[in-house]
Structure formats: structure tokens, C-alpha cells
Design goal:
nine-stranded mixed sheet; globular; Purple Acid Phosphatase, chain A, domain 2; single chain
Length: about 240
């Protein structure tokens, strides 16, 4: 992809490569963002230990969300070999989530962190960041022409990469509807899908997204093996 390329490119691995504020960005079917020029992998909203938080309130969910989320993250690290891994906020579901992590999950985080720089951007669910896990905690980080933070600022913000809103795309065709997690971008900023196994999603047609984009965004919806680009006019709201 050259600096003059403005059209998204589909890669053999099923990812889509495009530009955000001039920076090459690869949108992975897993929901991860790969910034190849900077050897940086970015994921948002892991919400580790969400299942145990719900169980404590009497809503019993299978207690495997943390292990599954970390397994998928470890697979992305193994596939891409980043020198830096950025967790873009709400990595822990709440202030006590770290204490609820199983020993096997802590070990997996340690193994993921080996040989790379691990950065925990804080979010509204984990404002203090982890206390005993490897890596550095910070509010936001600048990478090239991008600024990475958890919660998007209101009004267009060229170069902003954020999470928090858990965007989802919904389309209707042939008598049925399909709803998938998605990236959302207008070429100037990018909102990442939630990476966590139990994280929910907010329809991209929701009014919460209206102040964020200078022009109608495209959705890059996550399929099993590839990212599907969906134009604004194809998206439908939840009823």
C-alpha cells in the first residue's frame, strides 16, 4: 500500500488494510488492529473477568470468557510478532477483576508480555489499571499520526483510535438480519470493536456515534475468516 492509496485493500488473510489519518491500518477478522509500520498490535475492551462479575451478582455465565479472550489475543501475537501490544482500555471488567484472575490466566498474560512492550491504556472500567500484571499503565499514547485512547472525544478528532462504544453493524437481506461486531471509520478516525468474549455491542446507527464522524463511516464487520466492508446506507438500526 502506497501513501497515495485511498481505497481499502483486502488481504489474503481476510484482513482489510486502509488508511486512518494517513497511517496504514490493518483491520483483522479477530477485531484486532495491526499497525505494521510500527509493529504495534491494538485491541480494545477485553473486559477480563466479566463472567465472574456477573456470577457474583447471581447471573450465572460460563466462567470461560477470560481464558477464551486471552487465547485469541495470544494467537494474534503469535501470528504477527508485534514489538508492542496496546490494550485500549476496559481490559479489566472492574476494579477487583485482577484479583479474580485464575493462575492459568495470569500465566498466559505473562507469556503474552514476554519479548514485547505491553501498554495498558486505562478505561472507565479499569481507571487504575492493573497493579501486579506486567506492562505499563497510561492514559493515551501517540503512534505516528494516530492518538490512541479508550473513550472517543466528541466532535471529529483526526487520527483518534478509540474503543469504549463496542460498535456493531446490522444488515438485512433475503428475509433475515445479521448483526456483527465491527470497526467504524471515516478515514480520519477509527473506533475498534470490543475484543472480549462477553463484551456486548452498540449498533453503529445509534445516536452515540453521530458526533464522532465528519462524514458517514463505513463498517468493517467481523466474519469468521474475513472482514466485510459495509457502506453506511446498507446499515440498519436495531428495533
Amino acid at each position: 500500500m502506497t501513501p497515495d492509496d485511498k481505497v481499502p485493500v483486502r488481504l489474503a488473510c481476510g484482513s482489510v488494510r486502509l488508511r486512518v489519518n494517513g497511517e496504514a491500518a490493518t483491520l483483522r477478522p479477530s477485531g484486532a488492529l495491526w499497525l505494521e509500520q510500527h509493529k504495534t498490535l491494538v485491541v480494545a475492551d477485553l473486559h477480563l473477568e466479566k463472567g465472574s462479575a456477573y456470577a457474583a451478582r447471581g447471573q450465572m455465565l460460563p466462567p470461560y470468557d477470560t481464558a477464551e479472550t486471552l487465547r485469541r489475543l495470544q494467537a494474534e501475537v503469535a501470528a504477527l510478532g508485534p514489538v508492542r501490544l496496546i490494550l485500549l482500555g476496559d481490559s479489566l471488567h472492574d476494579g477487583q477483576a485482577e484479583a479474580r484472575l485464575a493462575a492459568a490466566d495470569i500465566d498466559r498474560i505473562d507469556r503474552i508480555a514476554r519479548g514485547l512492550e505491553l501498554l495498558w491504556v486505562v478505561g472507565n472500567h479499569d481507571a487504575d489499571g492493573p497493579r501486579h500484571l506486567p506492562g505499563q499503565t497510561l492514559d493515551e499514547i501517540i503512534t505516528g499520526h494516530l492518538i490512541l485512547r479508550h473513550e472517543p472525544l466528541l466532535a471529529p478528532q483526526p487520527g483518534e483510535v478509540a474503543g469504549h462504544l463496542h460498535p456493531c453493524a446490522k444488515v438485512v437481506g433475503k428475509g433475515r438480519s445479521v448483526r456483527r461486531r465491527c470497526f467504524a471509520t471515516d478515514g480520519q478516525r477509527l473506533i475498534l470493536p470490543a475484543f472480549g468474549a462477553y463484551a456486548g455491542g452498540l449498533n453503529l446507527r445509534n445516536a452515540a456515534f453521530n458526533p464522532l464522524f465528519a462524514k458517514p463511516p463505513i463498517a468493517a464487520a467481523l466474519g469468521k475468516e474475513q472482514v466485510h466492508l459495509i457502506g453506511w446506507n446498507q446499515l440498519v438500526a436495531d428495533r
